[in-house]
Amino acid sequence: MAAGRSRVRGALWLAGLGLCASGVVLTIVVLARAYHREPPARGGRGLWARSEQARRLQPTFSPEERQELKELLQGAIRLQTVSFAPDDQNVTALAEFEPYIRKAFPAVFSAAFIQHEVIGEYSHLFSIKGSNPQLQPYMLIAHIDVVPASPEGWDVNDPFSAEERDGFIYGRGTLDNKNSVMGILQALEFLLRRNYRPQRSFYIGLGHDEEVGGKNGAKKIVAELESRGVQLSFLLDEGSFIYEGIITGIEKPVALIGITEKGAITANFTVKLAPGHSSAPPKRTSIGILSEALAKLEQNPMPNLFGHGPEIIMFEQLAPEFSFPLNIIMANLWLFGPLVGRFLERQPATNALVRTTTAITMFHAGVKSNVIPPSANATVNFRIHSAQTVDQVLEIIDETIDDKRVEIETGDAFDPLPISPWDDQTFGVQVFRQAILDVFPDVGSTAPGICVGNTDSRHYGSLTDAIYRFNPVIFGASDLPRFHGLNERISIEGYERQVKFLFELIQNSDFHQPVEPHIKLHEL
Ligand SMILES: *[C@@H]1O[C@H](CO)[C@@H](O)[C@H](O)[C@H]1NC(C)=O
Ligand SMILES: *[C@@H]1O[C@H](CO)[C@@H](O)[C@H](O)[C@H]1NC(C)=O
Ligand SMILES: *[C@@H]1O[C@H](CO)[C@@H](O)[C@H](O)[C@H]1NC(C)=O
Ligand SMILES: [Zn+2]
């Protein structure tokens, strides 16, 4: 160990990321000297019996199909399904979406075993009936709405033009999340045209208000499925990506699949005092008292909880991918955990992995330059680490501020999402691993990740405890700022692979009994 440590050159740090709906990113960047080493041995490829393998449809698309899938994605980007605020959406575009997908996916809309329903006016629920009712259904979800985009700063003229440039489609929604909306339906369309009939039933849910909370879309889809008594074997939503070149110290791309999301509290802090003239000021003003309270919150960050949440599983499973000596460090977090935790908190992006974060986002006070303000208020956004609850965080806030003059009012608050099962026996995990092997053979490891933002999937907890968040797209360092930002884009090849991944995933979900222990976790 000591020898290993002495060979670390340069700083080790992990600037984490993992994208979710709200566009927050959690990546792991480890800066250290890259050591070359042999790739880890991979487990067997064949998860499925030979007879089952023989029935599988190959994910090869004709040139016409490849042109078709690209143009259909472009058409979807051009519909400006923007969510401006919870009750302010472009309903014209949302309404145009239904005829658009009807025309784009005729086989999906005409199959006798597929039922399509519009939920909450603009969301869509597809129920695909499998031939074997014994198998528990699963569900794929995505969202139709996008965040706003104005043309300033984009390399293309219009963020809704879906312009093709250098092998990429540019436009709002190309990564978040029309790629999934269209990719899921496209994969199913191609399967149906090849006379595929699923054995296992599944659902497709396309929400229309994910970016503004999901109350009319996802929530209503869930209520509908609850009323039918549906329980799911797993649910797949958007979330993390396949990261390449983002995690320094890891050469190969690695797939991170979100198994939880952080919780959140939005709290308003208010100080009210009698107003007065600035010529005879009181000792303390509302602004002074509130500032002091906020300063205490910033100077006393919530505890570093590295090792108490699922981030530890993520690092342990990625351990073999790291170059020496980081692989040793990551594989021995029982020993190096505190050290790694300290490193992680140095960068904002990885700090978000190890603790409940505190962000003062608004401050209002003062009316006139010579009037003592009667009140001051501020809004603070906390993102709760998996090992804490809303109540625990509120208690710490109270203790930290320790000032009765500061009133606290909490608006939107929810606990971290439950941690989905992650082990070799979990059906969803097996299915994802196999589909990743099939379509992304370069991926070194598939590991669980943590989303620091939130997705529609958080509304689905009553239907399953196996909720996963993953966008099967390779994501590099330059893609980070594009998410909810300028020049959002997807490579045409990347979108084709996403369709292939979904094409394989739907087929993989039919098989219920893997014949051999699937891919072993890499061992050091
Ligand atoms: C709403 O969407 C329609 C159709 O896509 C588009 O023509 C219109 O400009 C959009 N309006 C706004 C305010 O985004
Ligand atoms: C916050 O303070 C501003 C300025 O004093 C005031 O206009 C506003 O009503 C206050 N908001 C709340 C929620 O107290
Ligand atoms: C907190 O303050 C913000 C901004 O002033 C306001 O929009 C929000 O409604 C307030 N929330 C609560 C719970 O008072
Ligand atoms: Zn999203």
From TrEMBL:
Coiled-coil ranges from the UniProt annotation: none
Active site (UniProt): D145, E210
Annotated transmembrane regions: 12-35
Keyword Transmembrane annotated: yes
InterPro entries xref list: Bact_exopeptidase_dim_dom, Pept_M20_carboxypep, Pept_M20A, Peptidase_M20, Peptidase_M20_dimer
Protein residues bound to Zn(2+) 1: D176, E211, H484
Alphabetized GO MF terms: aminoacylase activity; metal ion binding; metallocarboxypeptidase activity
One biological process term in Gene Ontology: proteolysis
One cellular-component annotation, GO: extracellular region
Record keywords, A-Z: Hydrolase, Membrane, Metal-binding, Protease, Transmembrane, Transmembrane helix, Zinc
Residues the record lists as binding Zn(2+) 2: H143, D176, D237
Reactions catalysed: N-(9Z-octadecenoyl)-L-leucine + H2O = L-leucine + (9Z)-octadecenoate; an N-acyl-L-amino acid + H2O = an L-alpha-amino acid + a carboxylate; (9Z)-octadecenoate + glycine = N-(9Z-octadecenoyl)glycine + H2O; N-(9Z-octadecenoyl)-L-methionine + H2O = (9Z)-octadecenoate + L-methionine
Keyword Coiled coil: no
Annotated ranges, domain Peptidase M20 dimerisation: 260-405
Family: Belongs to the peptidase M20A family.
Protein name per its UniProtKB record: N-fatty-acyl-amino acid synthase/hydrolase PM20D1
Species of origin: Pogona vitticeps
